[in-house]
Amino acid sequence: MQEEFCFSEIAGHFAIDGKYVSCIRYGEGHINDTFKLTLEKDGKEVHYILQRINNRLFTDVEKLMRNIRLVTEFCRKSVIAHGGDPMRECLNVVPTKDGKDYYTDGKNYFRVYIFIEDATTYQIVRDPKDFYESAVAFGSFANLLAGFDASQLYEVLPDFHNTKVRYANFLRAVEKDVCGRKAEVQKEIDWVMAHKDLCGKLVDKIASGEIPLRVTHNDTKLNNVMIDNKTGKGLAVIDLDTVMPGSLCYDFGDSIRFGCNSSAEDEPDLSKVYFRFDLYETYLAGYLSAVGSSITDAERENLPVGAILMTYECGMRFLTDYLEGDVYFRTTRAGQNLDRAHTQFKLVDDMTAAFDKMLAAAKK
């Protein structure tokens, strides 16, 4: 990658000041190519994040970057209003010298962010405190954007959490049975169909206005949170490529889906898979402490619904992909998507059994 581009020339298109020093690959992201750009100014090193945007996946870079600029500018103003540090508590897009949000050479697309110093992202939860701090970060993200009109955002991935549409896609996969796998997974198909009433639980409430339309991050993993190196506290949410209109119950629910699983997402032995209510309480406490009074009663009461729904939706997507020949989710072995579906269905059953406890905790 580094041999393909002249990074000093690319950096020269952005509104940054200093002498080019280096640009090295950075982080563990798989979607975009990410680099740490170093310049020298007044005898000191200044750092930025330079990314080549994956325009094969994000085909409308103009709208993608408009989303990110609108959200980051609003976050910055909110952080300042709350007395925080806008250089560390939110992403800051660096414009090009001609005022655009990105630079393109006609084939490749690049963007630059101010580097958040003295902070780290982690790939795995080292202890429950990390999970708590990720909850604080995503709760703060929702709170900072509480006054933002989410309807102005472009849907980068249309119907991403429209569970009714996901269910319709599943039914088509069952009907077509392109790989002849339907017979072997009839039990799993029946399970999904038996739970179809879940599909409208949030979609319908958003449509009616019972649950407000908000900015959703849609990739609420721990490695999208900057953790302060000294305090261990969650600082800022990063990777805003999938910010879209939706419900905060989606983001909360997806965090619970993967964070409260006792085992790996593709664990074949279901006796090892169970819903960790203790971690649910940990995340819930962090999230509610940060989202504050901006959360509505209807949203609060639907947080456990979001957890069940996101887990059901993800399991249904794994099963759909298995029926279609494993064409969407990357697999490394036969039956992996089916194992993934099984873990999600087991978690849904566990969460359903614990729903009253989950709801009581959310209301407390």
Description of the structure:
It is built from twelve helices and eleven strands. The chain has helices spanning 7-11, 61-81, 128-144, 163-176, 186-194, 203-208, 248-259, 277-291, 297-301, 303-323, 336-353, 355-363, and strands at 19-25, 33-41, 44-53, 93-94, 103-104, 109-114, 119-120, 214-216, 225-228, 234-237, 244-246. The strands form three sheets. Strands 1, 2, 3, 4, 5 and 6 form a six-stranded antiparallel β-sheet that branches. A three-stranded antiparallel β-sheet has the order 7-9-10. The chain has a two-stranded antiparallel ribbon with strand order 8-11. Strand 5 and strand 6 form a beta hairpin. The longest helix has 21 residues, at 61-81. The mean pLDDT is 95. Residues 25-263 form the Aminoglycoside phosphotransferase domain.
How many angstroms does the end-to-end distance come to? 51 Å
**Unreliable stretches:** none
Mean pLDDT: 95
Please state the CA-atom Rg, rounded to the nearest Å: 21 Å
Please outline the major beta sheet.
6 strands, antiparallel
The outline comes out as globular
How many strand units?
Answer: 11
Domain Aminoglycoside phosphotransferase: 25-263
Organism: Candidatus Borkfalkia faecipullorum
InterPro entries: Aminoglycoside_PTrfase, Kinase-like_dom_sf, Pseudomonas-type_ThrB
Protein name: Aminoglycoside phosphotransferase family protein
